[in-house]
């Protein structure tokens, strides 16, 4: 039940004096309480837990992290001429 | 969905694993506090891909698992009362109380309803003014803002037939309790990402200093976990102990100030006993004095229930990282998710349930390091 997942805000509105949003989770839409991220705009991603947006998903930071992972180990691989994307003996990348 | 697949990329995972292998020179014991992380680690087999000797110890961060037996028994008692609609998250229904669970109470005619959000319980209360509607408010700091907002809205909207059975628990006091334990062999922590999305990271520098222990805020996808572990091992190997944030896309340092303000308004810190672990001072939230009229325990006066824990269940040791689930004799035999003896077998985030689901065919004993895992703590090196 600690699961919190990112979803895209597709509409914002109000119900019983509380700010609410329609959030799209990869095709499934849910009504979510937006009271804790009141300035979330349509198109932004929020992290949702038990029907509440608890945080914004910072897309720039997500992309930076992925880029850092992509660079990781590349230098060493260039130096010894290996294909960075190929799995090597002794690793079990396929298992993930 | 956005950034769920991207953070599961096997090629990038391979690189992170390679980095962890290249850095590791000796055994380390790292605790992931959060049950969601336990589930993800076991599901993706990440613990088995790590270099031999880097051991993941599964922490007490499953709210379903640590909700004290007496609160479960009170829930059962309240749910059985005529006129009550008892609302709960689904995974609480099979948590064993002393002898029965909410599911059994429901099958004998009680009105027990599973809701997705506590606000749904408030809607049920509004539609059934002649009934008493109780929501079972459990969880860590991640879930507490939802319950706090629901209580606040009940008050604001004048919904008088709604109350909350509260059993909130807090992560930082649990980390302190684990480090204070004489049997502690945890050398570093992955801090629960979504708890920090709410609370920020301000509570951790003090723990890092006091126990000289690295704490790395970590997310839940495979790459998040591997990056958290990579940064943790790098600190341990260098003899450093710092607070680090490996989940910046969801965790700003200040957390969510609006949620924190609401938590301060509605809740007050209290001592809380954790199932299987025992009392941890100042480790939970109760309703603040101004909101006590919404407290289901007071409204239904259920203070003296008599509890009886299963004598066979070793979930306390599992929750403290002293044994792994398959080391319990009941595991997979007398105790399964359909017939759980302890709460750690119920929730998807419970370590016993995660091992049952993903590890029955390949017992993890084979991948455990050959050497004694009771390595000295960093503080003593
Ligand atoms: S396997 Fe079952 S009985 Fe054993 S510790 Fe886990 S929950 Fe308790």
Automatic annotation (TrEMBL), chain A:
GO MF annotation, one: carbon dioxide binding
PROSITE patterns, sorted: HUPF_HYPC
GO BP annotation list: protein maturation
SUPFAM superfamilies referenced in this protein's UniProt entry, alphabetically: HupF/HypC-like
Pfam families associated with the record: HupF_HypC
Similarity-based family: Belongs to the HupF/HypC family.
Name by which UniProt lists this protein: Hydrogenase assembly chaperone HypC/HupF
UniProtKB/TrEMBL annotation, chain B:
TM segment ranges: none
Signal peptide stretch: none
GO biological process: protein maturation
Recorded superkingdom: Bacteria
Pfam families according to UniProt: HypD
InterPro entries xref list: Hyd_form_HypD, HypD_1, HypD_2_sf
Keywords attached to this entry: Iron, Metal-binding
GO MF term (any one): carbon monoxide binding
Family statement drawn from the similarity comment of this UniProt entry: Belongs to the HypD family.
PANTHER family reported for this sequence: HYDROGENASE MATURATION FACTOR HYPD, HYDROGENASE PROTEIN ASSEMBLY PROTEIN HYPD
Protein name: Protein required for maturation of hydrogenases
Native source species: Frankia canadensis
């Amino acid at each position: 039940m600690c699961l919190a997942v990112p979803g895209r805000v597709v509409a914002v509105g109000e119900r019983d004096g509380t700010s609410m949003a329609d959030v799209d989770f990869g095709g499934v839409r849910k009504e979510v309480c937006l009271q804790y991220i009141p300035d979330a705009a349509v198109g932004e991603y929020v992290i949702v837990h038990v029907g509440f947006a608890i945080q914004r998903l910072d897309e720039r930071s997500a992309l930076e992290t992925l880029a850092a992972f992509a660079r990781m180990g590349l230098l060493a691989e260039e130096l010894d001429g290996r294909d960075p994307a190929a799995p090597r003996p002794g690793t079990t990348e396929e298992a993930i | 969905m956005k950034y769920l697949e991207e953070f599961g990329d096997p090629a990038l995972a391979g690189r992170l694993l390679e980095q962890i292998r290249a850095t590791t020179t000796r055994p380390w014991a790292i605790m992931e506090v959060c049950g969601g992380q336990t589930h993800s680690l076991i599901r993706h087999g990440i613990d088995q891909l790590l270099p031999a000797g880097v051991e993941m110890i599964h922490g007490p961060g499953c709210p379903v698992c640590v909700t004290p037996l007496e609160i479960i028994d009170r829930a059962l008692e309240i749910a059985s009362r005529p006129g009550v609609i008892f609302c709960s998250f689904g995974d609480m229904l099979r948590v064993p109380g002393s002898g029965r669970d909410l599911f059994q109470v429901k099958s004998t005619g009680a009105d027990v309803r599973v809701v997705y959000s506590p606000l749904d319980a408030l809607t049920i209360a509004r539609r059934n003014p002649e009934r008493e509607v109780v929501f079972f408010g459990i969880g860590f700091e991640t879930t507490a803002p939802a319950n706090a907002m629901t209580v606040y809205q009940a008050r604001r909207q004048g919904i008088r037939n709604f109350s909350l059975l509260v059993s909130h628990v807090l992560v930082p006091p649990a980390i302190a309790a684990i480090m204070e334990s004489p049997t502690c062999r945890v050398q570093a922590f992955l801090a629960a990402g979504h708890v920090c999305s709410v609370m920020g990271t301000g509570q951790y520098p003090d723990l890092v200093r006091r126990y000289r222990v690295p704490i790395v805020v970590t997310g839940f996808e495979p790459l998040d976990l591997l990056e958290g572990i990579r940064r943790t091992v790098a600190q341990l190997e260098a003899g450093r102990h710092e607070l680090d944030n490996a989940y910046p896309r969801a965790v700003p340092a200040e957390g969510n100030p609006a949620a924190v303000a609401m938590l301060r308004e509605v809740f007050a810190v209290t001592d809380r006993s954790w199932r299987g672990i025992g009392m941890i001072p100042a480790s939970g939230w109760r309703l603040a004095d101004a909101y006590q009229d919404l407290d289901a325990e007071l409204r239904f006066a259920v203070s003296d229930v008599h509890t009886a824990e299963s004598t066979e269940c070793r979930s306390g040791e599992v929750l403290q990282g002293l044994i792994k689930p398959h080391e319990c004799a009941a595991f997979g035999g007398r105790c399964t998710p359909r017939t759980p003896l302890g709460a750690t077998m119920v929730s998807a985030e419970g370590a016993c349930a995660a091992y049952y689901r993903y590890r029955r065919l390949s017992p993890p004993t084979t991948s455990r390091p050959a050497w004694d895992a009771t390595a000295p703590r960093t503080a003593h090196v």
